[in-house]
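To illustrate the input format used throughout this study, we show a single complete record. The first block contains the structure-token representation of the backbone; no residue identities are included at this stage. The design step must infer an amino acid for every position from geometry alone.
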């Protein structure tokens, strides 16, 4: 009879060298057509968020705390999309549905790190809106460049520090030959279902990470907006109240398009074990792609300063190209 140690060692021998990414089951023959909307989404994500970063970087009138946080949000959303693009387009364009064990862990680490950063940036933006409305005269003094840099560095450090142990724990587990993932990229919620070892530490750590990031962030965002409303009702004029609230509309929309799909996906993974796989795949894609596609469009339309800066930039480039002719 084999000892427990030998059984454990035998299990490790079957750890897969590669993982198989399913993509969208049952629609394999339609992948060429499915690749079109994904390619369009990536174009919108990189172009839209890239323009936001470009105009904020080059327009000195946008060198204010609100726009610095917006630039970081755009950068993080590009990071999320860059993390998923190799496997998503590899499956739908070229039929490549395999990824190495190390590559899968790297994709999971980078993708989840950027999504945690996005939550932190949304919290920072809510604090920015509270300071701007509560103390407008001291706004740039309170949120000076050094403080903004420190907040952004803390957000990035928190995300990386919390994700690193999750990679270590997954790497130590025996997978026993199970290597099929249900999505077009490597999600932690998918990976944790494959090992044949004890995954309780992974589940506990995952719940801790969700609580101290998404849970805490959304709580603090709600508190920020309670304080914002409390401040706004004290403004004497109706026009002043509307102007103050109008500066928050884009951020409120960004919070909703980020957290609603996230919470919905978490509920489906937690309680919808018998839900159709296609529903889970659709919700996972909405969670990852909807915010990066929509946010630059909303901020470009709703934020007059961003819109005007984009128009000036495009006009300047058109004039330069005309002069060159």
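Output of the design step:
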């Amino acid at each position: 009879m084999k000892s427990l140690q030998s059984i454990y060692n035998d299990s490790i021998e079957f750890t897969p060298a590669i993982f198989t990414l399913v993509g969208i089951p049952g629609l394999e023959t339609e992948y060429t057509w499915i690749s079109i909307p994904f390619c369009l989404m990536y174009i919108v994500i990189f172009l839209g968020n890239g323009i936001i970063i470009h105009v904020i970087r080059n327009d000195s009138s946008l060198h204010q705390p609100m726009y610095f946080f917006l630039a970081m949000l755009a950068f993080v959303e590009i990071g999320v999309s860059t993390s998923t693009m190799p496997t998503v387009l590899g499956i739908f364009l070229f039929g490549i549905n395999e990824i190495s064990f190390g590559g899968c862990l790297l994709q999971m680490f980078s993708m989840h790190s950027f999504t945690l950063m996005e939550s932190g940036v949304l919290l920072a933006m809510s604090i920015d809106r509270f300071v701007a409305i509560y103390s407008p005269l001291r706004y740039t003094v309170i949120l000076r460049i050094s403080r903004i840099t420190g907040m952004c560095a803390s957000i990035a450090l928190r995300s990386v520090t919390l994700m690193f142990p999750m990679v270590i724990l997954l790497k130590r587990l025996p997978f026993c030959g199970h290597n099929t993932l249900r999505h077009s990229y490597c999600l932690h919620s998918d990976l944790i279902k494959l090992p044949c070892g004890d995954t309780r530490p992974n589940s506990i750590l995952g719940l801790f990470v969700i609580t101290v990031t998404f849970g805490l962030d959304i709580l603090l965002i709600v508190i920020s907006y309670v304080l914002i409303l409390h401040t706004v009702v004290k403004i004497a004029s109706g026009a002043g109240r509307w102007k103050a609230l109008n500066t928050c509309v884009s951020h409120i929309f960004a919070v909703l398009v980020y957290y609603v799909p996230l919470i919905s996906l978490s509920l489906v993974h937690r309680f919808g074990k018998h839900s159709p796989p296609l529903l889970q795949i659709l919700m996972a894609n909405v969670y990852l792609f909807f915010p990066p596609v929509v946010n630059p469009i909303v901020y470009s339309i709703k934020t007059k300063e961003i819109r005007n800066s984009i128009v000036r930039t495009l006009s300047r480039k058109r004039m330069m190209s005309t002069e060159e002719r």
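Structural context for interpreting the output: The two ends are 84 Å apart (CA to CA). DSSP finds twelve helices and three strands in the chain.
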